[in-house]
Amino acid sequence: MTGPALNVAATRVGTHALGPGRRSVVWVQGCPFRCPGCLAPEWIPDRAARHAHPAELADELLADPGVTGLTLSGGEPMTQAGGLAALVRAARGRRDLSVICFTGYRLERLRARPPAPGVTELLGLLDVLIDGRYVAGLDDGKGLRGSSNQRVHHLTPRLAGCGYDFTGGPRTAEITVDGTTALLVGVPPPGLLTAFDSAVRETRSRLLPPGTPDATPGAPGRAPLPTRPREDN
Ligand code: SF4
């Protein structure tokens, strides 16, 4: 199974924080948007991160035999749609899986003017698409979408009747720590980011010399982002 290599910000194998059941997650590097309050601003720049081939990544994400689904996030997955479509095909060649994808674009825009090669193919492989840019003022602390303007599209019936409440259910999040690297997995419930940021700062101050620059991939930074002119997404 071939496809363009992916530029990957992070992966997580086996989590219950990003959709129904036990899932593996891939976050891609690079996003054309600048949503104020973005959970992962360090994944916005279009810079080289980890380059991984779809088949290799499929093996990694399915190393946990209990995984029944994939969640694609970022960064902006649609900018790497061709590679992600190849990943989904490779993974489904090994196991039957549901697939959820987040995007800052609106579904109508993706269908009318795909922003990158492979978007139409990827849309054809998804069970659920959560679309639209994050708006901090509309973050109601509920569901798998980050703010209430974002929509949950069941592109197939597969997860529509599974009992998982994508829009109104309670949020869960997991924090993994590996050395000095912390990764927050999930859409954070109210108050969690503040607690997480202060815990990271406290831990770093104990472990690292003063003045050490923050090079913590996966840790959600909270620095204000420059806003860009509104885009048609
Ligand atoms: S679309 Fe998502 S990753 Fe991109 S800036 Fe907005 S919240 Fe961040």
From TrEMBL:
Q: Where is the signal peptide?
A: none
Q: Where is this region: Disordered?
A: 205-233
Q: Which Gene3D superfamilies match?
A: Aldolase class I
Which keywords fit this entry according to its UniProt record? 4Fe-4S, Iron, Iron-sulfur, Metal-binding, S-adenosyl-L-methionine
The coiled-coil regions, if any, are none
Q: Where is the composition biased (Low complexity)?
A: 213-224
Protein name per UniProt = Radical SAM protein
Query: Domain of life of the organism in this record?
Result: Bacteria
Q: Name one GO molecular function term.
A: [formate-C-acetyltransferase]-activating enzyme activity
TM region(s), chain numbering = none
Which cofactor does this sequence's record say it needs? [4Fe-4S] cluster
Q: Which InterPro entries match?
A: Aldolase_TIM (IPR013785), NrdG (IPR012837), Organic_radical-activating (IPR034457), rSAM (IPR007197), rSAM_sf (IPR058240)
